[in-house]
Amino acid sequence: MKPVVGVFKSRSAAQSAAVKLVPLGIPNDKINILTPDITQTELAQLPTQAAEQPGMGKAMGATVGGAIGVAAASTLPALLGSLLVPGVGPILAIGLAGGVLGAVAGGGVGAAMENSTTEGLPEDELFVYEDALRQGHSAVIALAANDQQAQAARGALEAAGAESIDRARDMWWVGLRDAEKETYQTHGRNFAEDERYFRCGFEAAQHSANRGKSYEECRARLGDRYPGAHEREPFQRGFQRGRAYFDALRKRANPNRAPR
């Protein structure tokens, strides 16, 4: 299966776009929407015990823990588990095949962030989708059967107004850049010259395999992914700041969690 993701500014836009994927031959049960836009009525109607929901494996039940509740089609749990993020609040999963599938509480899942599976979505892009949800946007996730169908799905989502992953990534950085620049330059460093490597390190700290871990713990993996660049001081400083950023999000979601 080939995952295709589109980020939309509203739940209604995401739902309209999802419907456009059906004529491409993607089955309804392979198209889902994640959104933080939940009505009180929907929230009240959701189950309260994740363990009681059908179709959920033991691993997902353990990951969700005390969440509001979750139920999903067989193709969704891994994707949903990858998108549990501090600071979002409840995330509603909507499937074209069966309406509302369930919801997951975004708060208090710091441990889940480190252990959740990332099957189905590029691990170095997860933080972009997570931030989109945090900003109130919605995401359409479709599982295409092959490359040709995936390409057609991407085209359909773009035509429906989906934000490109590159733009979403840039907007995420724009929201952080000024504060990071000020902190970096406090010690007399040149941010304009070092930003490329600093940002690369900052983003590397958001990768699901690196979250909450020190640079030394990730050095070998970073060397494989960013050969040469990972040894530069701006990269390492960016990684340290990126870890602090993630830890701050996790702490806000679960203030009683002890630091690693």
Question: How would you describe the overall organization of this protein?
Answer:
The protein has helices at 11-19, 40-45, 58-64, 77-82, 110-115, 126-134, 147-159, 165-185, 191-204, 215-225, 233-253, and strands at residues 2-8, 31-35, 90-95, 99-105, 138-144. The protein has 260 residues and is α+β, with helices and mostly antiparallel strands. Helix 6 (126-134) packs across helix 8 and helix 9 packs across helix 11. The longest helix is centred in the C-terminal third of the chain and has 21 residues, at 165-185. The model is unreliable at 48-83 and 105-119 (pLDDT under 50).
Largest sheet: 5 strands, antiparallel
Note poorly predicted spans: 48-83, 105-119
Placed side by side, the strands forming the largest sheet appear as 1-5-2-3-4
The Rg value, from CA coordinates, equals 19 Å
What structural class do helix, strand and pairing data support? alpha+beta
Percent of residues in beta strands? Answer: 5-15%
Question: Kindly state the mean pLDDT as a whole number?
Answer: 76
Question: In DSSP terms, counting alpha (H) and pi (I) runs of 4 or more, how many helices?
Answer: 11
Roughly what percent helix? 40-55%
The string of secondary-structure elements, in order, is EHEHHHEEHHEHHHHH
* First and last CA, distance: 36 Å
What is the approximate shape?
globular
| Count of DSSP strands | 5
